[in-house]
Design a protein that fits this description.
Layout (H helix, E strand, L loop, with lengths): L8 E3 L7 E3 L7 H14 L3 H5 L3 H14 L4 H27 L5 H20 L15 H23 L4 H17 L6 H12 L1 E5 L10 H16 L7 E4 L1 H6 L6 E34 L2 E30 L5 E22 L6 H8 L8 H25 L2
Parallel strand pairs: 3-4, 3-5
Antiparallel strand pairs: 1-2, 5-6, 6-7
Helix pairs in contact: 3-4, 3-5, 4-5, 5-6, 6-7, 6-8, 7-8, 9-12
Length: 398
């Protein structure tokens, strides 16, 4: 048992009321550090053991023994904790096997794997092997439990597929996926995975973006292609599959839903020009000479600042329709805008009155805005962000 001796109280005479307390020595940092390590070593895993956290107690004791191979306290804790941990896991395995839980074999796998992890941890510590007698790892038991668990998942998947509805097919997919994870290549599980996926997937045909004016058809195709590119890579493992009309026709596909995108209204290149005139002046500027002396005064100028803005924007109507009932499932209008801007300036009067920002503006010249096709693309960029966010949110519930 770990002990730390503390200073004692002594009677300095025969008088029972006359006591002398011995002053403890001043402890150095090194001594304090030693005491801290001493205390920790005494409790390595002991607290976890007392609380019934046997696996944790094993790991803590092993960690201590890897640093201090002769730590008797840790060796004793390791032996006790490993025995209790193994007993608990075995009890849990027996209970699981007798339970009515359909997924009981997965609980069994977890218990055996936990014991295998304890064995591996102890084997990595040579001094730990003296504290416990290790059995062989439960490799065969894990393999048998996995085979049993895969059989149950596979059988439940088959039963769910027979219900012939989307939610059951979706759960069947997860069961077949788990069966494959537990026992790779189990029966025809790969084929069943594919069957369950196509029974669960929602097939959505995305109609071309409708646009009234042919002059912007090129820019509209750019926007549409960006959407198709996004949908083609939409969460590869999701149960949503998007098709172009051409793909649907080629595959004789009967969709579940139709996603329609239409520009209800848009304007490109709406131009506004504003002019702001400001008078500027500067004092104490040399304006001439008189009788051989410099004359100082105030100089003035009128600065004209021009600002041109070219606005473009539009409304995109997004609608999802049920193919079979023709009912609208969701509909939303989205607005996108893009404003191009340029500024320049001119002045009249004395150049010396100009401020630095005035000079910078005056050096500029009026520039032409981008062509209409480019402006169209720019205002569809925020629409693209809104649309993809809408699609992600809407189909996340499926």
């Amino acid at each position: 048992m770990c002990k730390i001796e503390f200073p004692q109280v002594h009677n300095s005479s025969n008088n029972p009321n006359n006591f002398t307390v011995m002053k403890p020595p001043v402890l150095s940092r090194a001594v304090l550090l030693f005491l801290a390590v001493f205390i920790v070593s005494c409790s390595a895993g002991k607290r976890s053991l007392e609380k019934g956290n046997y696996d944790q107690a094993v790991y803590k004791a092993v960690n201590r023994l890897q640093k201090d191979t002769d730590n008797r306290k840790a060796l004793r804790t390791l032996g006790e904790a490993y025995g209790y941990a193994t007993g608990d896991h075995m009890d849990n395995i027996r209970e699981a096997k007798l339970s009515s839980d359909i997924l009981r074999w997965e609980r069994v796998i977890g218990e055996y794997q936990a014991m295998n992890a304890l064995i591996d941890e102890i084997k990595r510590c040579p001094s730990c092997r003296t504290a416990v007698q290790l059995p062989e790892k439960y490799t065969r038991e894990v393999a048998e439990a996995k085979e049993n668990a895969a059989a149950i998942r596979y059988a439940r998947g088959l039963k769910l597929l027979e219900e012939k509805n989307r939610q059951s097919a979706k759960q069947a997919y997860y069961d077949f996926e788990k069966a494959e994870e537990l026992s790779p290549g189990y029966k025809d599980v790969i084929q069943k995975l594919d069957e369950a996926y196509w029974a669960a997937v929602i097939k959505v045909v995305v109609e071309p973006v409708q646009l009234g004016r042919s002059i912007y058809q090129y820019s509209n195709e750019y926007f549409q292609n960006k959407i198709y590119e996004y949908l083609e890579n939409y969460e590869q493992r999701s149960f949503i599959k998007f098709y172009t009309p051409r793909e649907a026709r080629r595959q004789d596909l009967i969709p579940d839903q139709v996603l329609s995108l239409n520009f209800d209204d848009f304007v490109v290149g709406q131009t506004y020009v504003k002019e702001k005139v400001e008078e500027v002046k500067r004092d104490s500027v040399k304006v001439g000479t008189a009788e051989g002396k410099d004359v100082y005064g105030t100089v003035k100028a009128k600065v004209s600042i021009f600002e041109k803005t070219v606005s473009s924007g539009g409304l995109l109507n997004v609608m999802v329709t049920d193919w079979h009932t023709k009912n609208t499932i969701t509909q939303e209008r989205m607005e996108g805008t893009y404003v191009w801007q340029t500024t320049w300036g001119s002045y009249k009067g004395d150049e010396r009155a100009l401020r630095n920002e005035d000079k910078s503006l005056i050096k500029r010249r009026e520039t032409l805005p981008p062509p209409p096709q480019e402006l169209f693309i720019e205002f569809t960029k925020p629409l693209y962000a809104q649309l993809t966010d809408k699609i992600r949110r809407f189909y996340s519930k499926y």
